[in-house]
Amino acid sequence: MANKVVIYTTPECAYCKMAKEFFRQNNISYEEKDVSVDDKAREEMVEKSGQLGAPVVDIDGRIIVGFDKEALSELLGVK
Amino acid sequence: MYDVIIIGGGPAGVAAGVYAGRKKLKTLLITENFGGQSAVSADIENWIGVKKMTGLELAKMLEAHIRSQKDVEVKMPEKVNKVIRARNSFKVATSKDTYQARTLIIVSGSSRKELDVPGEKKFKGKGMAYCSTCDAPVFKDKIVAVIGSGNSAFEAIIDLISYAKKIYLLSRSGLRADPLIQEKVKKSSKVTIVYNAEIKEIVGDKFVSGLKYLDKKTNKIRKLAVEGVFVEIGTMPNSEIFRNLVKINTAGEIVVDRKTMATSCLGVFAAGDVTDEIYKQNNISAGDGVIAILSAYNYLLKNKKL
Description:
The complex is a heterodimer.
Chain A: E1 5-9, H1 14-25, E2 31-34, H2 39-49, E3 56-59, E4 62-65, H3 69-76
Chain B: E1 2-7, H1 11-22, E2 27-30, H2 55-67, E3 72-75, E4 80-86, E5 89-94, E6 98-106, E7 110-112, E8 128-129, H3 132-135, E9 143-147, H4 151-161, E10 166-170, H5 179-186, E11 191-194, E12 197-204, E13 208-215, E14 220-224, E15 228-231, E16 235-237, E17 268-270, H6 282-302
Parallel strand pairs in B: 1-2, 1-6, 2-3, 6-17, 8-15, 9-10, 9-15, 10-11
Antiparallel strand pairs in B: 4-5, 5-6, 7-16, 12-13, 13-14
């Protein structure tokens, strides 16, 4: 079954771009929420991650802060 | 046994790696990521041959170039924890394995300097921020402080002006940023500059709620209510794990011979921001990386190890 992946981003953040590219390379569909324009998403991101930095990735409720390739690979079953 | 292990994946490391590949040296490059500190830059406009690109683009160019070298093995992401000198070789212990080589190229670069005050570690990511380009939007309508006096502090303010409600710049010893960027920042009514401020503590509960600083003029501790603290006080060489191996100066930089990039330890060479190179620049790091690997190659030839 496909994972539900949400990524919280800011426009100029390099690690956000790296994470999105990682999803594309591995054919993982994701929903992006830009916290610079979406106030609700910003609150959501802080609440879920307990911190104030982008990116935050939510994979079926599991939260990963930053672009942690190894953690993402493991949760998404990417080799 | 490798001919050379390169520790780092910034411009110096990749330049050394590409030349190592062309010399057919059995090479291992170990790095946590590619592109070095510039990987998170929004714009790079001085990498020779490219008018303008993002830091991420530079990182990808470097990674593609090193991965095209047949004789260079790449371990990424992997962190080097320890280097031990053995008989005629060096052992490099990482988070995953131990590797051995006849020569080493240290190109571990530098990292942002931290305040080193109580509360800083506790609130990392919880109001303490080190990447304004990434995180400025998260501080929308909040009161924030930027710590620093140079260009990077002012660049952080520019990132924050579109989002934050109020920005305090706390400078310890006077402003050093270029006049042009200072003018731009001082025009904003959102910005207040506090001089002679030495940060003493970051306070808060779950998140940062304020900071304490020493006003060096009056010698009094003052409090400032802020929800975000952006630290822009310069960089520190990533040289700690090499302290027992090579000579390091008081600034923490590895001392190199300018002609060969040789360190004080025979068989160990260094290049880029981790060294005492005066100009910390991507282009210079690349050039110094090339010098380092050519010197390592000559060292191997001379000692009949090739």
